[in-house]
Amino acid sequence: MASSLAPGQAEGTSSSATAGEEPQRTDIVDVDEDVDSAFEDGDNFSDTTSVSSSIYRGRMINGRKYSSLRDDYWGPSDEQQFETLNAGHVLYLVLDSNQPNPLFRSPVKSPLYVLDIGTGPGTWAIDVADQFPAATVYGVDLSPPPSTWVPPNCFLQVDDVLEEWTWREEFDLIHMRLMLGAFTDTEWASVYKKCFDHLRSGGYIEQIELDVRVMSDDGSLAPDSLLAGWGQTFLDCARRAGRPLDTQLTMKAKIEAAGFVDVQEHLYKCPIGAWPKDPLLKDAGRINLNHWSSGLEGWAMFLLTRWGAPEPWTADEARVYVARVRDELKKRRLHIWHYTRRVWGRKP
Ligand SMILES: C[S@@+](CC[C@H](N)C(=O)[O-])C[C@H]1O[C@@H](n2cnc3c(N)ncnc32)[C@H](O)[C@@H]1O
């Protein structure tokens, strides 16, 4: 199976909800009025191995690079997408910066073997390897990570996790983040079963997924805005593709169905923009605005041009739409946020 990149030279609160349920509005985030009034011009950004060469080259579609291993995964793997994913990584570190370990919540104290499925740029895997030098950490993805140094106990590999797994180790922790829309329901069941089979007894699975729907509590998001319709547009595209994007709502039940026990869930409200009064949320919001701004095109292009309605959009139509959504993101006094859900559970 996996093509490996040698270490050191890598190239290349708690509540359950079921699918379709409206997410519950939890605590209201207080607005920092100073930030609102500071915007004079409406600019919300002013805060501001041996991996084969075809795998490295990937497939260029509409100006973005995609994995050459599969042609049905929506996300590009290029510098812009890695920048977005790294912003997402920092966002989740900030949101859990008051936790004993912001990298994961599973009570795994001294892991020996860790696997990160869909590792993207490998940032989470690299941080875990740094934090636990005695552990061996694997990150696996359809595409090679960007050229970067990795610690000697971290191995970033290129493979499709839907294929047979060849790792011999029994893992202490298997982690997934932002794998929404990667699998059909049947494929998810198979991935969770593989996770179960490859964890040691007492090992943990942990997964973090976001809700693509953007919301506001104070009506600052106009119901007829593009941003208000953004999430549903992509939920619909992904449903037509057969690889739903509502993973955050469905993962807990699927993880339990795979045999995991004591499955816990934490729900985050993730602000977009520096509008919250709370310093931690303000920081998170500032990072999340960059995350969204750099991510919009990569999130939108494949799904709209393959699965857009009433018929697939042209790349130019998708670009115009993304530009208009980006303009909306810059609007002052927009107190918007989305949910992110983290779930972790134990193999008995
Ligand atoms: C949205 S990215 C998230 C990356 C990383 N987990 C993070 O949070 O930064 C999802 C990643 O899953 C990978 N992926 C999708 N389907 C996969 C599969 N069948 N096998 C391995 N990786 C896969 C994609 O290539 C992509 O890099």
TrEMBL record:
<dbReference type="InterPro" id="IPR029063">
    <property type="entry name" value="SAM-dependent_MTases_sf"/>
</dbReference>
<feature type="region of interest" description="Disordered">
    <location>
        <begin position="1"/>
        <end position="30"/>
    </location>
</feature>
<protein>
    <recommendedName>
        <fullName>Methyltransferase domain-containing protein</fullName>
    </recommendedName>
</protein>
<dbReference type="Pfam" id="PF13489">
    <property type="entry name" value="Methyltransf_23"/>
</dbReference>
<dbReference type="GO" id="GO:0008168">
    <property type="term" value="F:methyltransferase activity"/>
</dbReference>
